[in-house]
Design a protein that fits this description.
InterPro entries: DUF4230 (IPR025324). This is DUF4230 domain-containing protein. The protein has 233 residues and is an alpha+beta fold. The chain contains 7 helices and 10 strands. Helix 1 packs antiparallel against helix 2.
Amino acid sequence: MKRRFAIPLAIMAGVLVILGALSWLLLSKFESGFTPDPVSIASASLDGLREQNRLTVFSASYNATVTTSVSRMGLSARKTLIMPGSVRYEVDLAKLDAGKVRWDEASKTLSVEIPPIEIARPEVQIDRIQSYDDGGILMALTDAEKTLDQANRKKGVAELAKQAQNPLQMRLARDAARRAVESSFVLPLRAAGLDAKVDAFFAFERGAANQDRWDVSRSIKDVLADKEKQGAE
């Protein structure tokens, strides 16, 4: 099994765009005593992330070994397939809702609930597939070989997907997603001169201690809605 971290170039490009916009905003507002608003900056970062749709945070390579047997006319045939393939671990950024991004003014912490990791369909490395068979007579007289190949390919893809769900790989994918999302929020905040922390997590990781902080914080969606209401008044 081989694994590698995917470099999220798209998310870094989005961060650079946000940083550029913030730099322009800060320069234009500096003389007027402008104070950076963490909620507005977080909202801009969120919009930049959502525009990128799916983010590949991690990828890994696996090898599936499967065997299928058939019996016909008193004869039997068996075929073993070794199928290498790679799997991408993704986050659907379109599901990163503003209601799941909260700002705690007291601790200067932005909490972000990351959408669940999604495993893409395995990509089979066809040129590296190996097969071994036993039952030449039956395969020569019937379509048994075609049947065996179809069954093995289906089982091979299923086995690759199963291997991709092992706890170690899922943890590595979540760690990579957490780092990518935290960077996309913390860099614009730091560029604006704000000493803020970003706590990115998955829903199942929210413990009792962190839940208390989540309860006292406010979602950026609610904060921005209140500002729009006050502006209208």
